TrEMBL record, chain A:
Keywords of this entry: Cell inner membrane, Cell membrane, Membrane, Transmembrane, Transmembrane helix, Transport
The protein's name in its UniProt record: ABC transporter permease
A cellular-component GO term for this protein: plasma membrane
Compartments (UniProt record): Cell membrane
Species in which this protein is naturally found: Paracoccus alkanivorans
A GO MF label: transmembrane transporter activity
Pfam families to which the protein is assigned, alphabetical: BPD_transp_2
The keyword Cell membrane appears for this protein: yes
Keyword Transferase set for record: no
Topology in membrane: Multi-pass membrane protein
UniProtKB/TrEMBL annotation, chain B:
Protein name: Sugar ABC transporter ATP-binding protein
Principal subcellular localization: membrane
Record-linked InterPro entries: AAA+_ATPase (IPR003593), ABC_carbohydrate_import_ATPase (IPR050107), ABC_transporter-like_ATP-bd (IPR003439), ABC_transporter-like_CS (IPR017871), P-loop_NTPase (IPR027417)
GO cellular component: plasma membrane
The ABC transporter domain, residue ranges: 19-254, 271-513
Organism whose genome encodes this protein: Paracoccus alkanivorans
Listed GO MF terms: ATP binding; ATP hydrolysis activity
Membrane-related topology note: Peripheral membrane protein
Chain ranges passing through the membrane: none
Pfam families xref list: ABC_tran
Length: 348, 514
């Protein structure tokens, strides 16, 4: 008994000594964001303005939505490479629906209202995500390979649908009753872009789901140790299919927001966005091995990447340098993740 | 330690002893696997190490073969103190080890496995022809008809063990450590192995032998050493000992893990297994048509050696493994078609054998691990009720007496015994009718063991049906009302709590050469 008290006292002392280092390490994404804002504010007078923050945030919204889905998948111990392609497929599908769906057998062209377009696009995203989930959980295809395949297939279908072209007119026509697609990308409520509000809403919903629902607990458990979770009665297959489906839905929402912001839907949109989303999740402190990570961290990660690259544009740094900086930040983040988690791991 | 515990000479006899350990200790955090052990390996003879699971046998062998480094103490080779940096270091000095767990690459051929890491090189690459010739020779010596070019994954387990043995023989070691080499071998293969061992000792090779088959080990050994709880408790030459001596020293005298709870009313049959069969991947039945009843308030112990089918039986009842035939009836209702989660909801749950791999989620806190299996019970609508969860966690920590800094402490900060109590607490929180525990005392110290069995006894008094398995005979004679001995997928004997250790061991096949 005396043994344990001594070691505990010793470790308390140690804990106090490392407190500041520990705080910096655990809040690293937050401090990195503060640092980025401070540096760019000094370098450019235009950076630290409400208007600029709102514009930058509407850029972050796209990555942010994708990275919420990516976080869910990574918490489960998987990876989803198909989010960028689902984003493009969703945008193109929405574009096609806005142009009208021709039913040749009936000889009519349907112009669904915008709300129906949004719902159908989300359903499409969910279906593609569910394909990922079924491949991975039931057919035991490794997540990397399954989503890599779906990434190609979804991108290919998007290209086929438009023959490689881009839908430029998404505004709809008043006489057909399908106007309003630009609302997602352009309108503001109380001065805040809708896209940012959508991101905030999704982040809050996902955050509550992770911290307060039993599904959230199941997700953390099956990502941390799937065998133990299964033996505790967690329906691990269902959890897996659900996270990939949710990732698909969030990618579809991101696709809608992006094509609304651009007022066009192209089949090559969102190329390599999956990598940015993974980077945001990693910078946010999630472990790629699963079971560790938070929405708060992931959101900070998304803002770090977004504010950094927009800041570099504002101060006029070459886009080639942006790539180098982003890469350096990712490597640094992974390094700190292994510092945080590596020490605690015990021999099993 | 009892006063008559023998102590080998501080300086080992150079003529007699080739490798010796003096005061070797090894700790993992707060767990002391070895507590200052002295051990001699006799030149050109077989020295057998006896001890129950967790006594420290494998740890000691890993220290002697350089796989792990001791926390303190000395290793003396031919009278000179040595320290091995790694296993290759020890191998270069003529010490090799056959591990209990096979360490073969299943995708590679027998030849490539035997020469892995020390390929015969020529100017133009590897000399496969020479490797193949030597492999063929080794297989002939072992009287095993295995082609050197067969991939290891196509061999059955016993043959894989032969390959493992051949690999150790091929390096011409002076000292060969065999950790449970016969656990998957057939009787005739064991015969051949013993012949090879006698040949080796005749050539001056020193053997260290570890086996749970006590009588089998007695036929081959020249010296016996017994470990218990990380201490050496006895050593003697073969001529002076018998089976009873080994069992007495292995198990110890004052080994009180409680007695079967009495004075409560036993209920009806809570769990009933009829004709259950569980096949392995290749279709061989690991559990072969077993039938078993456990009543509410009753504690039943399943005793058996490694490979007897205990784990498979319990995992099939819990729903982890698929049973090919038979019925699992819980409170009169068939549950075979239900998922693990549904069985837990009906009151049938398993505490798995390997708590690191199957029991705990290492990334979660103590509290989250405790509430994991019962999280559905305090979910109202969409969200979990934080208050209710907290109350459950607090009462669980008290009930199973987990020593922790609090519910938010990481699970990895707990000692092995406390981690095990968390796994048991997690299952108890689901309010089971029947609780199954697979080797509940694996890798935990004697104090924690006693507490685990006290928990089982208390549960039984409140009407819980308890079914636990063990490979330590002392644990059968603790709280169990009834002891079932399993051997190769069958029930080989059934006893009440008045049985002796020797009777149980005899029924398990431990004292009968398999």
């Amino acid at each position: 008994m005396s043994d344990t008290t001594i070691t505990r006292a010793a470790s308390d002392k140690q804990a106090k000594k490392f407190n500041i280092g520990r705080l910096l390490l655990e809040g690293r994404a937050f401090f990195a964001l503060i640092l980025i804002i401070a540096v760019f504010s000094v370098m450019s007078p235009n950076y630290f303005t409400v208007g600029n923050f709102l514009i930058m945030s509407s850029h972050v919204a796209i990555y942010g939505l994708l990275s919420i889905g990516m976080l869910l998948v990574i918490l489960n111990g998987g990876i989803d490479l198909s989010v960028g392609s689902i984003l493009a497929l969703a945008g193109v599908s929405a574009g096609a629906m806005m142009q009208g769906i021709e039913l040749q057998a009936l000889g009519v062209i349907l112009y669904p209202p915008v709300w129906a377009v949004v719902v159908l696009t989300c359903v499409l995203g969910a279906l593609v995500g569910a394909v990922n989930g079924v491949l991975i959980s039931i057919f035991k295809v490794p997540a990397f390979v399954a989503t890599l395949g779906v990434m190609y297939v979804a991108r290919g279908i998007a290209l086929l649908m438009t023959n490689g072209l881009t839908y430029n007119n998404l505004s709809g026509r008043a006489e057909l009753g399908n106007t309003g697609f630009g609302w997602l990308g352009f309108n503001r409520i109380a001065g805040i872009p809708i896209s940012v509000l959508v991101l905030a809403a999704m982040a809050i919903i996902a955050g509550l789901m992770l911290s307060r629902s039993s599904f959230g607990r199941w997700l953390y458990a099956s990502g941390g140790n799937e065998r133990a979770a299964e033996l505790s009665g967690v329906p691990t297959r269902r959890v897996k299919i659900t996270v990939y489906t949710l990732s698909g839905i969030l990618s579809a929402i991101a696709g809608l927001v992006l094509s609304s912001q651009l007022t066009s839907a192209g089949p090559t949109a969102g190329t390599t966005y999956e990598l940015t989303a993974i980077a945001a999740v990693v910078i946010g402190g999630a472990a790629l091995t699963g079971g560790r990570g938070t929405i708060r961290g992931t959101m900070l990660g998304a803002f770090v990447i977004g504010f950094l690259s927009d800041g570099l544009v504002i101060i006029g740094v070459s886009s080639y340098w942006q790539t180098v900086f982003t890469g350096a930040v990712i490597v640094l983040a992974v390094l700190m993740n292994s510092l945080q988690y590596g020490r605690g791991t015990r021999k099993s | 330690m009892s006063p008559e515990t023998p102590v080998p000479d501080a300086r080992p006899d150079l003529q007699e002893v080739v490798l010796a350990a003096r005061n070797v200790a090894k700790s993992y955090g707060n767990v002391h696997a070895l507590k200052g052990v002295n051990f001699d390996i006799h030149r050109g003879q077989v020295t057998t190490l006896f001890g129950e699971n967790g006594a420290g046998k494998s740890t000691l062998m890993k220290v002697l073969s350089g796989v792990i480094q001791p926390t303190s103490g000395e290793i003396i080779l031919d009278g000179q103190p040595v320290s091995f940096g790694n296993a290759a270091d020890a191998r270069d000095r003529g010490i090799s080890i056959i591990h209990q767990e096979l360490s073969l690459a299943p995708n590679m051929t027998v030849r490539d496995n035997i020469f892995m890491g020390r390929e015969i090189r020529t100017a133009t690459g590897v000399d496969f022809a020479e490797e193949e010739r030597q492999t063929r020779k080794l297989m002939e010596d072992l009287e095993e008809d295995i082609d050197p070019l067969t991939p290891v994954e196509e061999l059955r387990l016993g043959q894989q063990q032969i390959v493992e043995i051949a690999r150790a023989l091929s390096v011409n070691s002076r000292i060969l450590i065999m950790d449970e080499p016969t656990s998957a071998l057939s009787a005739s293969e064991v015969e051949v192995l013993f012949k090879v061992i006698r040949d080796l000792t005749a050539r001056g090779v020193s053997i260290v032998y570890i086996s749970h088959h006590l009588e089998e080990a007695l036929t081959i050994t020249d010296h016996a050493v017994v470990l218990r709880d990380g201490n050496m408790t006895a050593y003697a030459p073969r001529a002076e000992i018998d089976l009873e001596w080994i069992v007495r020293n292995m198990v110890g005298e004052n080994y009180d893990l409680g007695s079967p709870p009495e004075g409560h009313e036993m209920g009806g049959v809570a769990l009933s297994i009829r004709n259950l069969s569980v096949p392995d991947a290749s279709g061989v039945d690991l559990v072969d048509g077993m039938s078993l009843d456990v009543r509410a308030g009753e504690i039943v112990c399943i005793y058996g050696l490694m490979g007897a089918g205990r784990t498979e039986l319990l995992e099939a009842i819990a729903g982890r493994l698929h049973a090919t035939g038979g019925e699992i009836v819980l409170d009169g209702r068939e549950v075979s078609h239900l998922s693990i989660g549904e069985r837990i909801a009906r009151g049938l749950a398993l505490v798995p054998e390997d708590r690191q791999r199957d029991g705990l989620v290492q990334t979660m806190s103590v509290g989250q691990n405790l509430s994991l299996a019962s999280i559905r019970n305090f979910t109202r609508g969409l969200f979990t009720q934080t208050q209710a969860e907290r109350a459950l966690i607090d009462s669980s920590i008290r009930e199973v007496t987990v020593k922790t800094d609090g519910p938010d402490a990481p699970i990895g900060s707990l000692s092995g015994g406390n981690q095990q109590k968390v796994v048991i607490g997690k299952i108890l929180a689901t309010k089971p009718r029947v609780i199954m525990l697979d080797e509940p005392s694996r890798g935990i110290d004697i104090g924690a063991k006693a507490e685990v069995f006290r928990l089982l006894a208390e549960g039984a008094k409140q009407g819980l049906a308890v079914l636990y398995s063990t490979s330590e005979v002392g644990e059968c004679l603790s709280v169990a009302h009834r002891i079932i001995v399993m051997h190769k997928g069958h029930i080989s004997a059934e006893f009440d709590s008045t049985v002796t250790k020797e009777e149980i061991m005899a029924a398990s096949g431990e004292s009968v050469a398999a």
